């Protein structure tokens, strides 16, 4: 066999780390990376908040990986719509699914479908200019907002609502979001979590940012920081550095003085589990069960105390986790929102190993961890794949050429990596005019237009006549 | 803000951190690893990954460990990058147990 042809579906961090690991192997391996959008990088582009620009820098690492002559990017190609798993396997020895997980977990409480109730995916996708979410509207004339969730995504939502719009203007936030946020009348952002402060998944750095939001005060009721014995033991554990830092940050919010304050407020609530969303034509409030934690340290579970409180608000965002979308013809675990697998190798209905089919990233292990977690994850999946070499198809495969021909015969406009660079440069140029790192295209047609524009014309659009040098 | 590897890494060099770094900012010598703060993106993925809790955000450093900011800066600048997890050093397990982890 001249070379191993591996297809990776998805161009986010986990896909690129898998590609990186495979390309470093001594075996001759060629990678075909398929991406549904014209533009790559997954959540590094459309998940990381606009005010966390450093966390987008891994894209530079992915760009280096993409320079390999053995790496082929096919953007604007959707599995299912444009081609099937079978067709990919006809010209590749194996597929690694790195599709991620951006479907919001549902609250599964009455009133969830009321106007004014939104998921994290919708808000994050919207402010990050993801084409699927660009048309959404959020009623930011509402003064009181509830954010449900105790992880970093809940913090992102709250922070974007809390920060003065002018602080976001020079980020890569989508233009339509900057515009809408500049007219926001949101005054109070309340973050609710069903568990206590030692069980919250906020990472310390992200929570600490809430001490420094301009024109916004963060507050916590001391009652919400009461810890039972097991929670105290969790905090005392040597491994609990983040937990203790979080407790310190939150205790600092207990003596916030709001007298005479007319700016924004961000309040953290613990031991509050939403049970119902109420309202007539749109959300008017949520009902919350007051909870307590019970059990052994690090294994505590949530229990309802019987006490119930109502909280009036005009907008609700839920940020309680994500799941992947099922893939046609591939087994799916609906409970966990992942592809069933053993160390990255997919398994069938009867738990039989599906050699040749693999998963990495959130679609493999669930939506947890940060960007770097995917690197270790992908190393694991690649190791499993390489241990299966004897069980993969031995015949020569044609790789990306065949897929490109197939897609052309179906009149699909495939975006190459070089064409992505044109889109990238056009976004950066458009951003320069507004003092932003980039102005993202949010419409797929716009991306395709720039991609197809020949280099010379594109350069004229992106880089106008240089000004004469001044002495 | 910067992230810093401190003395618990010496004689251990587990390199669990290297495996979770999204931007490959670790450099190493025979004793331990160091972070290149010009490449590090402050994602903090390495901090909980270390079996001996050797890694800190600089703002969290106890006063006796602040010198490690400078040691990381100097050493990372002259040492080769480490991008793959390696075997821990022979004394690693014993040190980890003696530190109480």
Description:
The complex is a heterodimer of chains A (471) and B (101). Chain A is of the alpha/beta class and 471 residues long. Chain A has two domains: 4-102 and 323-415, 3-Layer(aba) Sandwich (Rossmann fold), CATH 3.40.50.720; 106-320, FAD/NAD(P)-binding domain, CATH 3.50.50.60. Chain A is built from 17 helices and 18 strands. Chain A has a seven-stranded mixed β-sheet, sandwiched between helices. In chain A, strands 6-14-7-8-10-9 form a six-stranded parallel β-sheet. In chain A, α15 crosses α16 and α15 (417-432) packs parallel to α17. The radius of gyration of chain A is 24 Å and the shape is globular. A two-stranded antiparallel ribbon of chain B has the order 1-4. Chain B has 101 residues and is of the alpha+beta class. Chains A and B meet through α3, α11 and α13 of A and α2 of B.
Strand and helix map with partners:
The complex is a heterodimer of chains A (471) and B (101).
Chain A (H helix, E strand, L loop, with lengths): L3 E6 L3 H11 L5 E7 L6 H5 L11 H9 L4 E5 L9 H7 L2 E4 L5 E2 L12 E3 H8 L16 E5 L3 H11 L2 H4 L6 H8 L5 E5 L11 H5 L7 E5 L8 H8 L4 H12 L11 E6 L2 E7 L6 E10 L6 E12 L2 E4 L3 E2 L17 E2 L2 E3 L5 E7 L2 H4 L7 H15 L12 H10 L7 H16 L11 H9 L2 H8 L9
Parallel strand pairs in A: 1-2, 1-4, 2-3, 4-18, 6-14, 7-8, 7-14, 8-10, 9-10
Antiparallel strand pairs in A: 5-15, 11-12, 12-13, 16-17, 17-18
Helix pairs in contact in A: 1-3, 1-13, 15-16, 15-17
Chain B lengths: L2 E3 L10 H5 L5 E3 L4 E3 L10 H4 L5 E3 L9 H12 L13 H8 L2
Antiparallel strand pairs in B: 1-4, 2-3
